[in-house]
Amino acid sequence: MIIGGKVGSSDPTNAAYLHKIEALIVELGLNERVIWTGYTPADEVSANLLAADVCVLPYRDGASFRRGSFMAALAHGCAIVSTTPRVPVPELRDGENVLLVPPDDAEALAGAVARLAENADLRRRLREGAAALAQHFTWERIATQTLALYQTLLDSNEEHLCSAS
């Protein structure tokens, strides 16, 4: 199942890549097995992510917290297979909260998906790890951290004003 629109607007090569994927699906006789949801309401996207056994998100430049699709998969506690970031992201721990494979390595990607298909314990561990990591990005936590930062700045400013007088 491919959730969402077929072509993103951030990369002009997306349309050519889409045609390549659609041709490959036909060539391999997978038309009846591949489901494209197209754009769907948020509750349907959520239901599809919650129902997924594995979420596969290969990016050329690797997994990142700046990607909405990756963040949505984390928030839904998905067992995620993605690509190794170009710049290390210490919070992403291979085998704990994500399975990472090299970018542009279809065999490694397929191997990781097969590994998850065969290993329920690994899927569970990745789901739990993704859900735990997602807690770092809740609005409540962001608000608490922002408030703490402002309080630190306020306290620092008050100390500076007191020492200046």
Summed up, what is this model?
By secondary structure, this protein is mainly alpha-helical. The protein has a domain at 41-138: Glycogen Phosphorylase B (Rossmann fold, 3-Layer(aba) Sandwich), CATH 3.40.50.
What would you note in describing this structure?
This protein is mainly alpha-helical and 165 residues long. Helices cover 52% and strands 9% of the residues. It has a domain at 41-138: Rossmann fold (3-Layer(aba) Sandwich). The chain has 6 helices and 5 strands. The chain has a 3-stranded parallel sheet with strand order 3-4-5, sandwiched between helices. It has a two-stranded parallel ribbon with strand order 1-2. Strand 3 (55-57), helix 3 (68-75) and strand 4 (80-83) form a beta-alpha-beta unit. Helix 3 crosses helix 5 (120-134). The N and C termini lie far apart (66 Å). The model has no long low-confidence stretch (mean pLDDT 91).
CATH topology of the domain at 41-138: Rossmann fold
The major beta sheet can be summarized as: 3 strands, parallel
Number of strands: 5
**Shape descriptor:** elongated
Unreliable runs, pLDDT <50, ≥5 residues? Answer: none
Topology readout:
Layout: E1 2-3, H1 14-27, E2 36-38, H2 42-51, E3 55-57, H3 68-75, E4 80-83, E5 99-101, H4 106-118, H5 120-134, H6 139-164
Parallel strand pairs: 1-2, 3-4, 4-5
Helix pairs in contact: 3-5
